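Translate sequence into structure tokens.
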Amino acid sequence: MTKRLDGKIALITGGASVPGLGSATAQRLAEEGAKVCVTDIDLDGAEAVAKGIRDAGGTAMALKQDVANEADWDSVLDQIAQEWGSLDILVNMASVYARTAYDELTEEDWDRGLAVDLKASFLCARAAVPHMRAQGGGRIVNFADWVAASGRPRYPGFLPYYVAKRGVIALTEALALELAGDQILVNAVAPGPIRPP
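Result follows.
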């Protein structure tokens, strides 16, 4: 029986949480027939997700990646191209979600939060688009947050996270416009509250 994503290649960043939204998304992509590359700064966690997919009969690999590092993007996309030949789907889930009181927030906290939660969404698109253009299209899904989508912060202590996720929504809208002519569909998903693993 043909599955919806048979023959498709998917990359999911920040997919190491077991159990969690990242692993569930990776598993679902595999269940629909995609070959799935799971990346995370936590390689052991990413490998656990990939192994679960392989044990269930799917195809998956795990790579260590700092999504805020442009060189890591080049390396990951090169490895996917060498192993599987292309990239059809990019799901950008990597995130820094840590409560820090406003008076304790440092420049380093701010920079890292925006780098992982916003800059990385730009870097991932820039790295993936040439591969998608070469095959006539693709899909990019950025994860935002329901609070950011509402336009009203509700939880103190998450300033960089909230600002970055608002930026992800704007970036997604702009990328959708920029890439429509290349048949690359760009969307944002804004989940509601999810219990951490």
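Note: DSSP finds six helices and six strands in the chain.
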